[in-house]
Amino acid sequence: MGKKLFLLLNKAAVRRILIFIAFLVLLALAYTAYKAFGQALDDRQRDWWFIGSFFPRTDDRNMPPILDILSEFGKSPRIGGETYISQLFSGALFTLREAFVAFVVGSIVGLVLAVLLAQSKLAERGVMPWVIVSQTIPLIAITPLVVLWGQANLDFLPWEWKTWMSVSVIASYLTFFPVAVNGVRGLLSPSSEHLELMQSYGASRVSILWKIRFPASLPFLFTAFKLAATAAVVGAIVGEISTGVSGGQGLGKLIFEFARTYAAAPERLYLGVIGAGITGLFAFGLIVLVEKTILNSTGQQIRE
Amino acid sequence: MGKKLFLLLNKAAVRRILIFIAFLVLLALAYTAYKAFGQALDDRQRDWWFIGSFFPRTDDRNMPPILDILSEFGKSPRIGGETYISQLFSGALFTLREAFVAFVVGSIVGLVLAVLLAQSKLAERGVMPWVIVSQTIPLIAITPLVVLWGQANLDFLPWEWKTWMSVSVIASYLTFFPVAVNGVRGLLSPSSEHLELMQSYGASRVSILWKIRFPASLPFLFTAFKLAATAAVVGAIVGEISTGVSGGQGLGKLIFEFARTYAAAPERLYLGVIGAGITGLFAFGLIVLVEKTILNSTGQQIRE
Amino acid sequence: MEVVSISNLSKIFNTGKDNEVEALREIDLTVTKGEFIALIGPSGCGKSTMLRLIGGLIPITSGELSVNGKTPTKAREERDYGMAFQSAGLLEWRTARKNIELPLELMGWSKAERIKRANEMLELVQLGEFARSRPAELSGGMQQRVAIGRALSFNPALLLMDEPFGALDEMTREHMQDQLLDICHKTESTVIFVTHSIPEAVFLSTRVVVMSPRPGQISSIVETNLRAGDNTADNTKIRNDERFYKKVTEVREALYGK
Amino acid sequence: MEVVSISNLSKIFNTGKDNEVEALREIDLTVTKGEFIALIGPSGCGKSTMLRLIGGLIPITSGELSVNGKTPTKAREERDYGMAFQSAGLLEWRTARKNIELPLELMGWSKAERIKRANEMLELVQLGEFARSRPAELSGGMQQRVAIGRALSFNPALLLMDEPFGALDEMTREHMQDQLLDICHKTESTVIFVTHSIPEAVFLSTRVVVMSPRPGQISSIVETNLRAGDNTADNTKIRNDERFYKKVTEVREALYGK
Amino acid sequence: NHNDDSASGNCDKVDKVKLQLQWFTQAQFAGYYAAVEQGYYSDLCLDVEILQGAVEIVPITVLTTGGADFAISWVPKVFGPIEGGSDVVNIAQVFERSGTLQVSFKDSNINSVSDLDGKRVGNWGFGNEFELLAGLKKNNLDPDSDVQLTQQAFDMSALLNRDIDAAQAMIYNEYAQVLEAINPDTSQLYTADDLNIIDWNDEGTAMLQDAIWADKSKLESDSNYRDIATRFVEGSLEGWIWCRDNPTPCVEVVLKNAPTLGRSHQTWQLNEINGLIWPSSNDVSVMNINLANQTARVATEEDIVESNPGSDWYRTDIAEAATKNLKDKGHDVRGLSWQKATVTLLEGGK
Ligand SMILES: Nc1ncnc2c1ncn2[C@@H]1O[C@H](COP(=O)(O)OP(=O)(O)OP(=O)(O)O)[C@@H](O)[C@H]1O
Ligand SMILES: Nc1ncnc2c1ncn2[C@@H]1O[C@H](COP(=O)(O)OP(=O)(O)OP(=O)(O)O)[C@@H](O)[C@H]1O
Ligand SMILES: [Mg+2]
Ligand SMILES: [Mg+2]
Question: CB of E80 within 8 A of CB of E304?
Fold first, then answer.
């Protein structure tokens, strides 16, 4: 498996990354071209038709030049301080740890729920509404509880409770939902042909779950894991912001800082956005890699 | 179709709602029982094992009695003011309008993206990363932009731009993602058998999309729509909190208010949570209803 | 010993809806241990439905049906059946061998035993080389053979087979017929076997049950029993025997009228 | 006029991987307009693969292949084909009639024409009553007949059929054979038809192409042409004709050796 | 609408103005709403649209990106952007005092800052903690080791649940929330007697809060904008003066604009807000230099900014011109005789 993963990384992943970079360059060009176009217009008639109002303003405050954004990476908040790129890098690592825990916890909870919901119509009807309700409650209503709870002395745990774990709890709250919903769909996806086959063997529910429903749901689950991995990263970022995690500098904290000083240094918010984006892509990419490896080995790959 | 919908409502929906209520009552009983148990413990030894730290406190501040919560509905924030239930009701309507617009806009964007992504590996590799990146950017980084954009004079629009539409834009940002991801999965789900059949007829890409990929993706899309409807409601609530809406009071604003005064009146936050939950369920229920009607008529129903 | 006993069995699909279909009407049939029943009848007359009823996969509408003195559901749970469906129904994420191992896994065989048996079965269906292929890489007939291997792998007491040899060429088909008979005699299985081939029905069976078009009813039962209990009988001889041709004609007349 | 011309065609699956399969080796075949080619050979010898190659659904590994002087892909895009696959491949969300209408929709027929033709086809495959049933509610044979109706509905110039009658009983099969011949003669279609039934191959075809086991090669071609261009020939007579039996024996010998 | 009918008559031209608040509508911004309702802006030929704030709205960003003409923001929250190059200036320091407190229960015996030693001290973070940190340092407490700083949610449960010993609170908001909650021991509301407060104004680490901010270079280059700014400050202050003198109808103006708020809570809030403005040591909103310097000093010590922002971040001419006009109209712009009223809070702030 290790070797397989590596091989995939070598071929498909490299191609993938190259395409991504090509699109990145295209995007940067489009950004610059749009900015130049807007500025040319500015010089003549700013309010011409709707360019003035509908599209983002093109001045350097609202659309800092690409080079400014890039060079900002090497700068630091104060003379001799840590550069932004190194701050972002350690921030991303910090946030990824939170996201990873959130992903694992959320996926497990989501899977358990999916299995429960897939059991019977009654279970689905009784439990599904609560899953929905849980998602409709905005994080702002639960963060205080989670934070308090994290601050209480969870002494009985074999490990010490850290504030970042509260962030993971919050992020996992966003994570389990797509896994549960797509998971149910996947667990119910086997054809009646396969289910009847299993029934004809007098297979137990557990066997059917394990040998039919679970493998058949893999393509669905990986889609869900993609959603969940992304949700875990953004949940960790948002969680950091809303709990104001101390004792560490995650991406969320950085982005919050950057957003607050947007007026002064718009480039920095772009740094934050780029940092968050790359972190999200990294998480997503990991899932894609695992998906390719597993689905290739079970022949359930839908493309490539 | 109208009649069919109505019939479904009559039978399945009523049963569904009854089951939901049964579970609701169960939950309320469990809540009360836990509270009673916790209080009994309190009287003896509060810090016994981990009840004291791990589980929520059971006093009336942290777990207001069910009856207090229920009776709070009929109260109002100030003497002679509008009752909470009526505030919640109009707040829910307000938020549902935002969510509806967000759902429609997000679903359309998501579908378009899904079709694009399903076209080719190149498209998927080039575009998918951006979709992911878009989701990893926390709302905090985009709300300033959306709000500014909304504040600019969008005179060319045939309708007047209202702040709630900015909220819809933010919510649709959460909505399109599950539709795009599940949509691609669905569009790629047809068996090679069906695709070869279409190829043998020399069918165009558009025909294949329309006659095979789209119908085959319906079960996936409805799953996505369920996620999207929930996301639209929570996105609208969060959007209201993070950007504010003038000229109306949505659920988000109410919940935020309630959360801030939690210490003084904990029951209220529960009102908000219940309000948000019911609104989310309503949106979800609508999708389920449409799903049942359509998938029943195409025979793609997976359960029931 | 009665293995399957059916009396006055009817099956109606979509009762009360506008697409109601009466699939089976008043079926009476008793199958005793060791019998090989061939079920024959025009397309859509209810043969598959009958197998699915006996297998306890769909509920009966009216009448009585018991398998080894139990309800079909009970019998199913006690693993009395081996079924081969009309379509192969392989698990696409498992290799050919792993597909054959499926029932063995469920019955708790050890890994070594499973592999041994699966390999035997693959040889039996002449697919030894394709053990590691996935269903999508096999031809239609090869898939069907894997499914047969799977149904036979665990020596079920009651075999329900729905046109298992439909996609095979004559030669392979004859080979499979011989193998099936061999296994059934060895394990004393009872078999209910749907086929469209009259010679196949006559060659394999002890009795041929002939069904009439929708609503499916048993129009006649032809005693064939060319082996008359002698399991060592030479198959080639039987296929060229005059009694064989006579029985084929008899069944054809029962089916289509003179 | 050459409709299909194949020379030195080979097909290898999974080239270079450890599950490499040589499906076809050095095939040469020319089919002229109006011919009815029956393709026969043991399970897994590459018959379906051949049809899929001719239909332009999979790429060839080496050799040459042209259809109506064009590449298969081109011919496919110009709608020269009607295909009936080994498995019915109906769209499960469409009713039987709507399934038959599918190719007609793609070819831009009007709604009224489509319904008319679909109903004719349903009558032809004896499923008039089941127009509004969904595939899941049809028996195996009924599904196959819907697929045949679908393939014939738009009078394609070149019909590629993969064991289309495999799941039908004798009587229905003979009916379908007669109908197929009728349609083909009327519309002057060219047909390549895979079957496991030697009598069916002989009865229908002008030539029987016999293939040998993997790697699939053409071992011999038997000229049958029992009708000798006479489309009004009485089918029952042909089926009972001595020439028919002789040809059957000839093909059997070509297939399995003496 | 009040503005239209009275304004159009006396004005050659009505100027549209957008004001970005720092938070959702509440009595903290009563003066501006009152000025709209009472027609003070329209009398000055302004058509003012008030944009309420929200969790993720940074008023200075809205101001600098052109989404608003003026913004209300706390002073320390603007220092960072200014140091980074934001082109904004404080034109009217409406609040003279800080409303930030550290609240604790009497039985925790926190009577002075030094009593926080070893205690669990809540704060909101996000830039709300500087007065506390400076206060701790001033009393020779190391925030990292001597106290246990704890993240506090935007409500007072943590204090009420005794998860923390001292909680951060705004005198006009969270402090009142404690007084609106039921004390389970007495089944009555908590009273001020149950609580100790530390007021940063008394500790010398207070930082200036709500002020009106404007676009700095536009103000220098565009005389029309300068004129609008002056009128805007004048109208706003007139609103605040009205709210000082007519607190009861002023609260109703707030309630009209925010139907979900409780009356007693907003009455309390307005009373306390008035206490942050009045009595005013200078003419109202004209910067008190000592407090400006104190704010800048604390900001520097707390590393909000690298170097002391000096005095470029505010200008007093506009506020002086506005208050001069008000004085000419006969208004009392110092409120020296103003005294806090006694407000009775009801359960839940009803
Ligand atoms: N799930 C179902 N819902 C409705 N009708 C059904 C269903 N299954 C089968 N039928 C109907 O029952 C009848 C018998 O079907 P069955 O599959 O048993 O036929 P069969 O004898 O196996 O035919 P074949 O030889 O074509 O496989 C058919 O008319 C079919 O349309
Ligand atoms: N997609 C594929 N990948 C790998 N091998 C394949 C694939 N399709 C077919 N084969 C192999 O090619 C050979 C020929 O298959 P094909 O389906 O053409 O046989 P066939 O003559 O149609 O057999 P049958 O009569 O059983 O349908 C088989 O050995 C099969 O395993
Ligand atoms: Mg059948
Ligand atoms: Mg084949």
Answer: yes
